[in-house]
Amino acid sequence: MNIHYIYIYTYIYTHTHIKSIETFAMSICEHFLSSFDHVIRAQVYVEEVPWKCLEKNGVKHVHAFIHTPTGTHFCEVEQMRSGPPVIHSGIKDLKVLKTTQSGFEGFIKDQFTTLPEVKDRCFATQVYCKWRYHQCRDVDFDTTWDTVRDIVLEKFAGPYDKGEYSPSVQKTLYDIQVHSLSRVPEVCFVTCHSED
């Protein structure tokens, strides 16, 4: 297994034209499918962990970084020897909190329901959102990722001056999916979930 990691790190340094983790994953798939006759399918998972250079009084540290809480960008690319790549991208580990304008109401009730409706509560969660692309040509993957992340934050928080009420976590996640599909034409499927 370690040999594979060393191989990939070496591959990174020899391919400086890589613009996104999605292009990088497609490049790895293509490399293995074209280099080895016995390989008929390649599947690659890549994460881009958000690090930021330490900074104090406007001076950036020369070699030290800190993990930033902006969410982790990941992608999964699968390609058969005879077909185009299938690309999924996503956001994980995006921790969000709002102190009001969140409820849990309007759900189906029956004889087993014990949870009362609530119209105002804290909403703290970790969001996971994954989407699939229609195709892989001429896609600006980083811009698409930024747009979907902005939609997640916009639908979670609402306008900065007044917020937005959410009747349930499920409704917020549904709104994220609907808005992502309507505002990002490159995307054909979106799934979201969050931890309670």
TrEMBL record:
Q: Which domain of life is it from?
A: Eukaryota
Listed GO molecular functions? urate oxidase activity
Pfam families recorded: Uricase (PF01014)
Task: Give compartment(s).
Answer: Peroxisome
> What are the BP-aspect GO terms?
purine nucleobase catabolic process; urate catabolic process
Cited InterPro entries: Uricase, Uricase_CS
SUPFAM superfamilies annotated for this entry? Tetrahydrobiopterin biosynthesis enzymes-like
Q: What is its EC number?
A: 1.7.3.3
What are the alphabetically sorted keywords of the record?
Answer: Oxidoreductase, Peroxisome, Purine metabolism
Specify the pathway. Answer: Purine metabolism; urate degradation; (S)-allantoin from urate: step 1/3
Q: Does the keyword Oxidoreductase apply?
A: yes
Q: What's the catalysed reaction?
A: urate + O2 + H2O = 5-hydroxyisourate + H2O2
Q: Which GO terms describe its cellular component?
A: peroxisome
- What is the protein's major site of localization? other
> What family name appears in the similarity comment?
Belongs to the uricase family.
Under the heading NCBIfam families, the entry gives: urate_oxi
* Function of the molecule: Catalyzes the oxidation of uric acid to 5-hydroxyisourate, which is further processed to form (S)-allantoin.
**Under which name does UniProt file this protein?**
Uricase
Record the organism.
Panthera leo (Lion)
Taxonomy of the source species: Eukaryota, Metazoa, Chordata, Craniata, Vertebrata
